[in-house]
Amino acid sequence: MSVATAESTPSYKRHSVGQAFWYRLRRNRSAMVALGFIIFEILIAIFAPWVAPYKPDESDYAAVWSTPTKEHWMGADDLGRDVLSRLMYGGRVSISVGILAQLAQVIVGLPIGAVAGILGGWVDYAFMRVIDILSSVPNMLLYLLMVLVLPRGFLSIVIVLSITGWIGIARLVRGQVLSLKATDYVRAARGMGADTKHVIVSHLLRNALSPVLVSVTLGIPGAMMAEAGLSFLGLGITPPMASWGQMIGLYQAYIQTAWHLTVFPSLVLSLTMLAWFTLGDGLRDAFDPTIQL
Amino acid sequence: MFRFILMRLGGLVGVLLAVSLLTFFLMHAVPGGPFDAMTAQTAQMIPVELVKNMEEHYGLDKPVWEQYWLFLKAALQGDFGYSYYASGRTINELIREHWPHSIQVGVMTLAFSSVVGLGLGIFSAMNPGRWPDYLGTGVSLFCMSVPSFIFAKLMQYFVAVKLGWLPTSGWEGWSEPKYWVLPVLANSLGPVLTLQRYTRSAVSDVMRANYVRTARAKGLSTTKVTLVHIFKNALTPVVTVAGPMTASLITGSIFIEGIFRIPGLGWYTNVSLGRRDYPLIMASTLLWTTLISVTYFVTDIIYALLDPRVAYVKER
After folding, report:
1. How buried is residue B181: exposed, middle or buried, by Cβ count under 10 Å (0-12/13-18/19+)?
2. What is the DSSP annotation of B151-218?
3. Which of A149, A228, A266 lies nearest to residue B29, judging by beta carbons?
4. Which pTM does this prediction carry?
5. Residue B292 forms contact with A (CB below 8 Å)
């Protein structure tokens, strides 16, 4: 229908980069399903107090350790708390840890990468050496030490996950800026007398932005997994606050008597990570004009 | 090349110094000392005089800077001192005892995931849009979205407990293969994912290259084109990820070793962190850092050997 007419009569209407991108992303069915799933989960997390069947810390003593029933769709835990409700509230922590950690990494990494790439010289050299050192520290050990040093809590987890995470963004932006600096259109802009500010803002930074967006989208599930890992070791989010990883960590020892306490959070965490990764891949394809969709 | 090697070795020394400094001060900033009742896990308080004595014995009463200096002097001679927890045993001895288990799991994981990852990658790149491609995508999506500790835990429950096919945990070294299966499988998720993705994109890039088309046009057989032209050139990017991956694999995973009760170095370091066994934490951090840096270094050299276009130091 509309696609056919568009093909037979080529339209010369100008599309903005954003429009073209959105058009390409929309044609990627799995990425759209993933996006829908993510929005659905975020909405549930935001409106948890209204959609959750129970309060997250409400004990139903008749349902202690119960496997899935009509009252508790995903069963209840050792204190009779509803697993489904805890998953809904736990999503608030798990999802926001992922997003906030990535945000912090961009806030630190983007300027550092941009400055190193634009200025070059000894500034670049100094930043790159710092990055070399930080990327040689065993990550997990650094996480564990940091978690023990900082006070326990939500914010500390975000800080710990961003402490080395910005390196990736900084490297990416620096590489982008370096390669963009050498492109013909940037040189043409310079030659036509564009001032440095214009070149940096509308050529270097704007073009470096789409790989950053892809990296952030792919980084969110990574951060969620790291949070889950720390919580699994008992070093993450502290009870009574719940996160998906923490629910898995707390009850994995009881898997033989209460499988539902491990399996459901694992399922939700894995599906969410799958959705973010799929969306990230979709974004990358949509940004890449060499890929035919 | 010689200048490049020298420069990198200098950099390695700098990195090791910086990492040791960072870890040392971070470690001492962690609340609780090795002889507190909490960390020693005893019910009754340890007498203050005893703690003071112990701290004096291990030099913990000195200022942190001086402690670091003493540590550095000894470490440069390969002496990491005695463990605070396993009294009377040297750190080198403990590492010699635990590390081989991690190496073993790591080597087996590497072997298994190389076969699966490279195989899937090549297979799906050579058949784009057909079932091997979908299989490869499916496996990589699974490896991506299921964290290894969750996979380990669920496998332990379903395969070992429910079905009873394999032991739930334990370790008997090389002699008992039934203990390897689950840890190696769970440990392979990440490596399989990385190897599959890199191999797939490398092989499909090379397959579209002009020299491959030329080789085909010249009338070379498919086997010859695949082996000589495609694999040889596609291997270069795969080698760059395989190096650092090996380093992280043979140092042992905290999760896998913890879940399957393998007495390896990853698990032991995590436990020592809880016991504030400072010398052991320092030694294994430096061991990891050295391994990672050395593999990056070796990878760069192999990269230069495989690809003649790579020049690290500008020739004059």
Report:
1. middle
2. HHHHHIIIIIIIS-SS-SS---GGG-GGGTHHHHHHHTHHHHHHHHHHHHHHHHHHHTSHHHHHHHHT
3. A149
4. 0.82
5. yes
Q: Is B251's CB within 8 Å of A138's CB?
A: yes
Residue of chain A with shortest Cα separation from B147: A225
Q: What is the residue-averaged pLDDT of chain A?
A: 82
Q: What is the mean pLDDT of residues A90-113?
A: 90
- Which residue from A141, A232, A273 is facing B145, i.e. has the nearest CB? A273
Q: Kindly report the CA angle at B192 between B187 and B194, in degrees rounded to 5?
A: 115
- Taking an 8 Å cut-off on Cβ atoms, the answer to whether B161 and A256 are in contact is yes
Instruction: Over range A149-175, report the average pLDDT.
Output: 86
Q: What's the Cα-to-Cα distance from A162 to each of A7, A233, A279, B274, rounded to whole Å?
A: 46, 19, 22, 23
Judging contacts by C-beta atoms under 8 Å, the chain B residues touching residue A225 are: 147
The string of pLDDT tens digits covering residues A13-27 is: 666 767 777 888 888
Predicted confidence at residue B315, as pLDDT, reads 45
Contact B285 A266 (CB under 8 A): no
Per-residue model confidence as pLDDT tens digits over A193-251: 888 888 887 777 777 788 888 888 888 998 888 888 888 888 877 777 788 888 888 88
Name the E strands within B48-125: none
Q: What are phi and psi of A191, to 5 degrees?
A: -65, -30
pLDDT band at A100 (very low <50, low <70, confident <90, very high): very high
Looking only at Cα atoms, what is the longest distance across chain B? 86
Residue ranges of chain B whose pLDDT lies below 50: 314-316
Residue A1 has pLDDT above 50, yes or no: no
What residues pair up with B82 in beta bridges, in sequence order? B90
* Three-state SS sequence of chain A: CHHHHHHHCCCCCCCCHHHHHHHHHHCCHHHHHHHHHHHHHHHHHHCHHHHCCCCCCCCCHHHCCCCCCCCCCCCECCCCCEHHHHHHHHHHHHHHHHHHHHHHHHHHHHHHHHHHHHHCHHHHHHHHHHHHHHHHCCHHHHHHHHHHHCCCCHHHHHHHHHHHHHHHHHHHHHHHHHHHHCCHHHHHHHHCCCCHHHHHHHHHHHHHHHHHHHHHHHHHHHHHHHHHHHHHCCCCCCCCCCCHHHHHHHHHHHCCCCCHHHHHHHHHHHHHHHHHHHHHHHHHHHHCCCCCC
A69 CA to centre of own chain:
33
- A280 contacts in chain B (CB < 8 Å): none
Q: How far is CA B255 from CA A97, B66, B187, B270, in A?
A: 21, 35, 9, 10
Rounded Cα distance between B64 and B87, Å, is: 22
pLDDT of residue A260 exceeding 60, the answer is: yes
Separation of alpha carbons B18 and B15, rounded Å: 5
**A252, B13, B224 from A84: Cα distances, Å:** 17, 52, 57
Report residue B96 as tokens. Answer: 């010699």
Q: What are the tokens at A88? A: 């809904």
pLDDT for the residue A82: 82
- Give the CA angle between residues B97, B100, B106 to the nearest 5°: 150
Euclidean distance between CA atoms B169 and B165, whole angstroms? 12
Q: Which residues of A touch B145 (CB under 8 A)?
A: 221, 270-271, 273-274, 277
pLDDT of residue A6: 45
